[in-house]
Structures are given as C-alpha cells and as structure tokens.
From TrEMBL:
<dbReference type="InterPro" id="IPR001932">
    <property type="entry name" value="PPM-type_phosphatase-like_dom"/>
</dbReference>
<dbReference type="InterPro" id="IPR015655">
    <property type="entry name" value="PP2C"/>
</dbReference>
<dbReference type="Pfam" id="PF00481">
    <property type="entry name" value="PP2C"/>
</dbReference>
<dbReference type="InterPro" id="IPR036457">
    <property type="entry name" value="PPM-type-like_dom_sf"/>
</dbReference>
<feature type="compositionally biased region" description="Pro residues">
    <location>
        <begin position="20"/>
        <end position="32"/>
    </location>
</feature>
<dbReference type="GO" id="GO:0004741">
    <property type="term" value="F:[pyruvate dehydrogenase (acetyl-transferring)]-phosphatase activity"/>
</dbReference>
<feature type="domain" description="PPM-type phosphatase">
    <location>
        <begin position="97"/>
        <end position="452"/>
    </location>
</feature>
<feature type="region of interest" description="Disordered">
    <location>
        <begin position="1"/>
        <end position="60"/>
    </location>
</feature>
<dbReference type="GO" id="GO:0005739">
    <property type="term" value="C:mitochondrion"/>
</dbReference>
<protein>
    <submittedName>
        <fullName>Protein phosphatase 1M</fullName>
    </submittedName>
</protein>
Length: 458
C-alpha cells in the first residue's frame, strides 16, 4: 500500500479502495487537507463549530457498529478547529492462499473468503488537525492490509513458522510452541505494523504540504472473538463491567516514558545537540547548585541517587515539568503518537521525532473468558475527558445512566453526550466549571461508548 490512495482522496477522487489507479493520471498538485468532522456526525462539513461549545453526536440515521454511541465538543478557544478526529467501520480481511489470485466475482459470492472485524478509533491532533485527519482516513486501511499479510497464520490453531506451510527446520514447530506464539500475537503485530506504516504516510503527506503537526491514536479492533485496544498517546480506554473496571490502555507521556527517552539520549547523545541534559533532577538546576550533591535519576534507575552537579548539568532537562505540564524537549506533552516528523525544538535544529514513538501498546480482552452482561461497555475518550474525570467517576456515571435508561434505543449515544457534557461543564462568566465548582475541561473532548453485549460475530 502506498500514499497514492491518500493523494487521490485529497483531490476528491475515489477513496473507497486503496491502491494504484492506472486511469487516474498524475493530476493537479494536491490541495491542503479538507477539514471536516467525522462522516457520521451530522453537519460534518462545518469548519468551526464553536457556538458555545455545543455537544454534537452521531446521527441516528447512520448507526455505528454494534449500535455504539459517539459525542464530541470543541475546545474553549484553545484552537480554531476541533483537533480531535474519530473513525469507525467494519473491516473485511480477505483470506487467500499464498501466491494465488482468486476471481473477484467468486469472492463476492463466497463470503467465507473473508474474516470480519469491527474498528473504532480516536485521534487527538496537536499543531493543527491535519495529522489527525490523515490518520482517521488511513489507519484502518493499514490495519486491513497488515491483517491480510498474516491471515494464513491467524486462521491456524497454532501459527506456522512459514506461511507457505513448509517445515524448513525440524525445530520450527517446537520454536513456535516454546515461544507461546498464538493467533492473537499476529493480530497484535499487525496493529503495531499498521501504526508504523500510517506514521510513515503522515510524514510523507505533511512534508509534501510543508506542514507540521501530529496526533495521538487510540484504536479498538474486535476480531476473532477478542477485543484489541492499541494506544499511542494520552487518550484512554476502559471497560466498564458489572463488577469492575478494566483499564485497556496506558497513557504515554514524557514522565511515564522517562527511562526509554533517557536511554535513547544515552545511546545517541548527538540528538541533544549539546542543548539538553538527559538526567532527571527534581527541578531545573541553577549556577549555585554546581558542586552540590543533588537528587537525580538516569535511564537505568527506578530509584533516586545523588549526583555532584557539574556545569553541563545546568542545561535544559530532556523531560521538564511534572504532570500535565511535563514536556518532551520542552515541546510536546506526549511521548508516543503519529506524525511530528518536521517538528523541531524552537530556535534549534533538534528534531523531536527520534524521541517520539509511533508504536502502540496493545491490550487484549478475550470475550470467551468473560460473561458479558447487557450494560458492559468500552469507553474510549481523548484526554479532554480524563483530565477532569477519573475511571471510577466515569464508571459510576455509566452504570447509573444505563440502569435508568434501559428502554431507550439511543441510550449509548445519549450516554456519550452525557459524559462529554459532564467534562465540559457549564459556562459561568468567563469560565467553564464542573458541578462541584472545579474547573472543567477546556480541551476538545471526544467519546465512544461501545456496548459489548451487542457484538456481532465474525
């Protein structure tokens, strides 16, 4: 798969099936990306839907997979556009024998030639909405392609060493067994490879437009009886079950990935260009600290030690600040995501991208191991929700709302709106406030509510 499909999409051409189009011709230079809201949100072509931060949801005329609910609201004057994007669809993975090309008409008639998956994703843009727009229109194609590349192993009880079925070495089957490699591991690998390919395409497209920017990515895929949640960034997904809450993602911030970032700086010190120190100190050091023994941490340390401060330690920290104020190279608040290939530290030639990983952490939930109840749901949301609400607060809202609205056919959509409204709060004077008088979220907020009991079989 190449970026040619995306270029045709930007020109307004056919974008339903990626791949080369021999009749397309070179065409005119591609224009800037078209900003729009997700296709399943009514009035999606509206460019700047501020209007008092009105909450918008998915239209009832276009049901989402599994009857999922979706809602969003734009930020409070933080940026001109809502930089969040969302996508959801059914993914059909084609089963085929290696090296054989089947007749397309026969494939249409023979539905057994396909495996079906269901996909939902949220993208939180920074530095503009462009990277999030590209990701929302391309990541699911990457996932489909990567799954088709390994589908021969996914459909086997135990993935073979060689997709051709050959046994080159007598120890090959033993290797797979000893490494405990299962079909789910191939799906996880496909998701990781898909994120990487999507990141490469975003880099090519943003460079061609002379644009900078990136996005976080949170994707959920139901495939072959399992739910896979892949996260690169600080969005979050949780399962709200009858008896407990199951976190399905981990936030990746400069603080949570301190050791990985420091280790990279240790291996390749030239990346810091003499402007930063890789060591972590409790605060930015001053000239009077030179010669003093102060607390510090290096890449190999979970605990703390004392270091005699040298003049070189007075440089700007590689990871600076704490909590929501922590920044990677004084620039980014996230340590994983897509895009940002052209991003440099202000007034320097230091590139941020080497420290920013596009590879997601994938968590797996096996439906066969759980007794799914009617009100069990997956909540996916960008950080605008989680900045002001914790897992337990969201779970309490979910359980209470669903128990009180059992007969409403649109209850999952209404629940998504309620969650967004709760985090957005109400405007009091010049501020947005929560019910408890704490400050509400000023960020873009996007939420999926996905009912697990409504899952459709492959």
């Amino acid at each position: 798969m190449s970026a040619e499909w995306l270029r045709r999409w930007r020109r307004g051409g056919p974008a339903e099936r990626p791949g080369p189009d021999p009749a397309a011709g070179p065409g005119p230079p591609p224009p800037a990306l078209r900003y729009r809201r997700p296709k399943f949100v009514p009035g999606g072509a509206e460019e700047s839907p501020r209007g008092g931060r009105a909450v918008r949801g998915a239209g009832s005329e276009r049901p989402l997979p599994w009857g999922a609910g979706y809602a969003e609201v734009i930020n409070a004057e933080k940026s001109e556009f809502n930089e969040d994007q969302a996508a959801c669809c059914q993914i059909s993975v084609r089963r085929r024998e290696p090296g054989l090309e089947e007749d397309e008409e026969w494939l249409i008639l023979c539905s057994m030639q396909f495996l079906t998956g269901y996909y939902w994703a949220l993208f939180d843009g920074h530095g503009g909405p462009d990277a999030a727009i590209i990701a929302s229109n391309y990541l699911h194609y990457c996932i489909k392609q990567k799954l088709e590349e390994v589908v021969g192993g996914i459909t086997e009880a135990q993935p073979p060493m060689h997709l051709s079925g050959r046994c080159v070495c007598d120890s090959d089957p033993q290797f797979v067994e000893e490494k405990h490699i299962h079909a789910a591991d191939l799906v996880v690998g496909a998701l990781e490879n898909a994120f990487q390919e999507c990141d490469e395409v975003i880099g090519q497209e943003m460079e061609s437009m002379n644009q900078t920017g990136g996005c976080t990515a949170l994707a959920a895929l139901y495939f072959q009886g399992k739910l896979y949640v892949a996260n690169a960034g600080d969005s979050r997904a949780i399962l709200v079950l009858k008896d407990n809450v199951v976190p399905m993602s981990s936030e990746f911030t400069p603080e949570t990935e301190r050791q990985r970032i420091q280790h990279l700086a240790f291996l390749f010190p030239k990346l810091l260009d003499g402007e930063f120190t890789r060591f972590e100190f409790p605060r930015r050091l001053k000239g009077d600290d030179v010669g003093q023994k102060v607390l510090y941490r290096d890449y190999f340390m979970e605990g703390w030690g004392y270091k005699t401060v040298e003049k070189a330690d007075l440089k700007y920290p590689l990871v600076h600040g704490h909590g929501k104020q922590a920044r990677l190279l004084g620039t980014l608040a996230v340590s994983r995501g897509l895009g940002d290939h052209q991003l440099k530290v202000i007034d320097t030639n230091i590139e941020v991208k080497p420290f920013l990983s596009c590879i997601p952490k994938v968590n797996v939930f096996d439906f066969a191991l759980h007794d799914i109840k009617e009100d069990d749901v997956l909540i996916m949301a960008t950080d605008g929700l989680w900045d002001v609400l914790c897992n337990s607060e969201v779970a309490q809202m979910v359980r209470s709302f669903l128990a009180e609205n059992r007969t409403d056919p649109q209850r999952f959509s209404e629940l998504a709106k309620c969650l967004v409204c709760r985090a957005r709060g109400m405007k009091r004077g010049h501020q947005w406030m929560l019910d408890d008088s704490h400050e509400a979220s000023y960020d873009d907020i996007s939420v999926f509510v996905i009912p697990l009991h409504n899952k459709e079989e492959d």
